[in-house]
Amino acid sequence: MEDATATFGRLRPRMLGAAYRMLGSLSEAEDVVQDVWLRWHDANPARIENAEAWLIAATTRRAIDRLRLARNEREHYVGIWLPEPVLTDGPSTPEQVQEASSDLSIAFLTVLERLAPDARAAFLLHEVFEADYAQIADILGKTEATCRKIVQRAKEHLREDRPRYVVSDQAHQRLMRRFLEAVSSGDFAAMKTLMAESAVLVGDGGGVVTSFPKPMVGGDRIAALLYAARLRFKDELHIRGAIINGRMALLRYIHDELESVQSYETDGERIVRVYVQPEKLRRVARREVMAMS
Hints:
six-stranded mixed beta sheet
C-alpha cells in the first residue's frame, strides 16, 4: 500500500494538470483526482502493468464525464465563461517555460472550450501529453483510426482560433512590465501606446460580479477602461505582476483586497487580448496572502 501511495503521489501533479486542462477549473480537477485516488485505493496493483497509464486513463475518463456535465451548466452561465486562473511559480527550465506559456495559458484553455469532451481529451493527450493513438484509443474506447481523425479535426477546428503569436516568455515579460509601470503610474498615453488598435477585452464575472456580456474591442477603449479605475480609486488601487497560468499577468488590488486577475496575450510588441476575472479568485488570493505573510 505504501508503494501504491507513493506512486500516486509522484504522478498526482501530472494527473492534476491533465484534469485542469480538460476542465479549466482547478477545484473540479482536484475533485477528479480525488475520485481517481479512491478507485486506485481499491484497485489490485498486481493487475496493473503500467501505473502511470492506468492513472492518466482513469483521470481522463473521469474528466470527460465531469466536462459533459459542466458544458450543460455553462450553457446557462451568465456572461462569458473563462477558465479559473491559477497562480503558478516561474518555470525553471526552457522546456517548462514553453509548456507553461502555451498549453496552460488562459488564451489556450479558452480556445479548447470549443471542443467536445472526447475531442478535447484526444487533442490534449496527443498534442500535450504525447500519447500515441493506441493509448488514446484504449482510453476513449475507440479505434486508432477514429482517434486519429478526431485529433486532426480538432486541430483544424482550433487552427484559426488558437493564439496566433509565438512570443517568448522574455518578450512577454518585458512588455508586461512596461504596461505594469504605465498602469501603476497612471500614464494613460503609455497605456494606449502599448495596446494594439484591434485589441479585445473579455471579462468573466463568474456569474456573480457584473461583467461584460460580450467582448470589448479597441485598444483605446480598453486602455480608457483600465485607466478609469486609477481615476476612481487613486491611491487605494495597487497593481502587481504575478505568474498566472505560466505567463506574467497583473493582479489588481482595491483597498488592499484582490479585485481582479488580468491575463494578457501579446504579439511581443503590443497587447492584443485581455482576460479580466473579478471572480474565481479565492485560490489566487489565498496564495498571495501566504506569500506575503
